[in-house]
Amino acid sequence: MIHLTQGNIRLNAQARDKTEAIRIAGSLLVDSGNMQPGYVDSMLLREKVANTYLGNGIAIPHGLPKDRELIIQTGISVTQFPDGVQWNQGETVYLVVAIAARSDEHIELLANLTDVLDDPETVQRLARTSEPADIIERLTQPRDGGSVNTGAPADAADDFAKWVDVSLTGPAGLHARPATAFVDIAKRFQSEVRVRHISKVANGKSLVSLLKLGADKQASIRIMARGVDEDAALEALAAAVRHGLEDEAEAPPAGFAAPTLTLQARAIAGIAASPGVAIGPLRHFRRERIVVAVTANDAAHEQTRLQQAIATAKLQLRELHDEVKARSGGARAAIFRAHEEFLDDPDLVDATQRLIGAGHSAGWAWRQSVDERALEVASLDDALLKERAVDLQDVGRRVLRLLADTLEEEPASIAVPVILVAEDLSPSDTARLDPTMILGICTAGGGPTSHTAIIARSLDIPAIVGAGPAVLHQAEDSLCILDGDTGNLYPEPGDGDLALARQAQHEWQALREAERLACYQPAITTDGYRIEVVANIGGAAEAEQAVAAGAEGIGLLRSEFLFLQRAEPPSEDEQFIAYSAMTRALNGLPLIIRTLDIGGDKEVPYLSLPAEENPFLGVRGIRLCLARSDLFRPQLRAIYRAAATGPVKIMFPMIATVEELRAARTIAEEVRVELGAAVVDIGIMIEVPSAVLMAPELAVHADFFSVGTNDLTQYVLAMDRGHPSLARQADALHPAVLRMIDMTVKAATAAGRWVGVCGGMAGDPKGAMILAGLGVAELSMSIPSIAAIKSRLRAQSLADMQALAKRALACQSAAEVRAL
């Protein structure tokens, strides 16, 4: 046990707030040689991820586990604040016990400290005493006696019939952090939980009671449970102890939010694309200059070179697809399958071969053919289709490198971590980046739906897009701060701004780690309301990834992944195998399968869909399914068959009228009867204004609604969400969109139906809180957003979110809503 001396005690201290109190208490340990000054900052950071208030006027601030190297020798200090210090709301502290613990030497003293909590008179006496010896004696000489279930000595009569013995695996025994984790788990069960250590028995749902056990590292404890769910409680608690409770204790408490930066330096404003803060030297991205001969004498040889280059490029794309899929999931990798399709374009290949036949080299002919087609695509009015020009140029460069006579100005490899600046990045450019060398990304062009933004988010790299040409004129290797949350790049920041940015980085890291460790905890608000948090996925492999990330099911399976990049539609059996593989991976969690949502905006050669002037207002979604029963019925058969293997729901996309929904349900029912399958819930996507206005009538025929905020936003505001110059304005938090969602929820509630949201707004912390306040029951989002959104929701009350939603509905612009 450690020694508590008068040098570690300060009486009659005063502090304006908790921060000052912690600094005073921490300085005692610094002065006594127990820790370095930096550990005081770690103590302050811990207050953002854990509540160190024990109760009855006592707090025990201590640092984050990752900062233990700042501890020189285990020690404890006690600071007396006779006037009290406001700790958190409703908590007044009189004794601050600061802990710097490298090992478990402080456990016995901590157990004695918690014993004091049962005696308010003793706490008040210690808060007013003028003798340090009183504090030393009380904390180093525990009193005898006590009662059962509060950590007092007990005999076997206190044990329950159901129990399991386990050994603590953490480095410092059952102290505050792991005990907090144990209590959090125990409270999830109705059964009474007790914990025995040697002769003491504690209430497993009481932090103070557990601390009184004084169980140090590798101690054996007996976990006991009695009640309706006793077996499940024992299994969960024993598994948590074996896994190591300390990691479980980093869950963020109420009020823990992402850090915000307000800097003095000049800012270059762009569009926030991937959150986080980056600090480092700026490096301009440069592509190599590919040199090819204009003419060639041997046409046959050039034709062979072309065929070999295309074949090699295909192999490269397949390898790149597999690499990105393993690293970031199938949805992120799908673009490289599309790139491979470009290489099979007969018009492109024929045009190149004709130029070769006219006496040009394979490289020159290929470049001309690609440039010509890219220019045609870039001139289209549709912004999303324009993006295909970037993809075409990307594929073209891949083949051109293989046909090059020389490569000039080949970019040097990045040897130190940098903030990468570019006019824009192609999918191949972004995929080739080494994440360990890229601190952040800033592009002059692009929008929040660009490949740069998508891949940056999947790699957890802070990113800004659409920052304009000013970023291209910044000095090479100049120090910059990139804020992916606000979309600002700060060139040449001062020392004060750098200090603020580094602090924000530190807080970001703590936040992300805390969210990750708490990802399996349900999103239950502080006033007891639960919001389901589920995932949007685009492939079978992502189902397992979603569960691992904390998803409580799949709110949107984009089934078109089975129909793209192939020569013919998938068979019923092929679809059944894919869907049932997901139900197995989900192991009882719900799966909502959206039926085929393909239209003129997606290239599906075997469907022979005619080109449409505006594919987003054409034959897509349910309209295509109703027109092509040869696609719709086999898919419905596969879904109903898969429903026998797990909880599955069907969802129809792009429903605009009651007639469409009734027709689709009629076909679904015919298929179900043919199979003799069980009834499943059938819902619809709310994506167009007519569906909102007809929601009361649609609710008669639908079991649930799911709002697709991405499409709903562009239809309500008449702004293409992928349009580079409109990206800032096409905001799902616009009051017009929020009022549409509010109307939908009210109509559904009146009919006894529930509403989910499966658009990008669900994964935006601001949007998630407003949606919950509007009465949305389920939020479905991309996998990387799950842990953060659950954390934010757990930190709020439903009442506060309802008040926020009410204020948001009364706003006049998206900017006003975000300012709330």
Automatic annotation (TrEMBL):
Tell me the protein family, please.
Answer: Belongs to the PEP-utilizing enzyme family.
- Key words of the record: Cytoplasm, Kinase, Magnesium, Metal-binding, Phosphoprotein, Phosphotransferase system, Sugar transport, Transferase, Transport
Molecular function terms, GO-annotated: phosphoenolpyruvate-protein phosphotransferase activity
Q: Which cofactors go with this protein?
A: Mg(2+)
Which CDD domains does its entry note?
PTS-HPr_like, PTS_IIA_fru
Catalysed reaction per UniProt? L-histidyl-[protein] + phosphoenolpyruvate = N(pros)-phospho-L-histidyl-[protein] + pyruvate
Enzyme Commission (EC) number:
2.7.3.9
Q: What does this protein do?
A: The phosphoenolpyruvate-dependent sugar phosphotransferase system (sugar PTS), a major carbohydrate active transport system, catalyzes the phosphorylation of incoming sugar substrates concomitantly with their translocation across the cell membrane. The enzyme II FruAB PTS system is involved in fructose transport.
Q: Which domain of life is it from?
A: Bacteria
User: Do you know which Gene3D superfamilies this protein is assigned to?
Assistant: HPr-like, Mannitol-specific EII, Chain A, Phosphoenolpyruvate-binding domains, Phosphohistidine domain, PtsI, HPr-binding domain
Q: Which PROSITE patterns match?
A: PEP_ENZYMES_2, PEP_ENZYMES_PHOS_SITE, PTS_EIIA_TYPE_2, PTS_EIIA_TYPE_2_HIS, PTS_HPR_DOM, PTS_HPR_HIS, PTS_HPR_SER
Q: Where in the cell is it found?
A: Cytoplasm
Broad EC category = transferase
Sequence ranges assigned to domain HPr in this UniProt record: 161-249
User: What name is this protein filed under?
Assistant: Multiphosphoryl transfer protein
Q: Which residues form the PTS EIIA type-2 domain?
A: 2-142
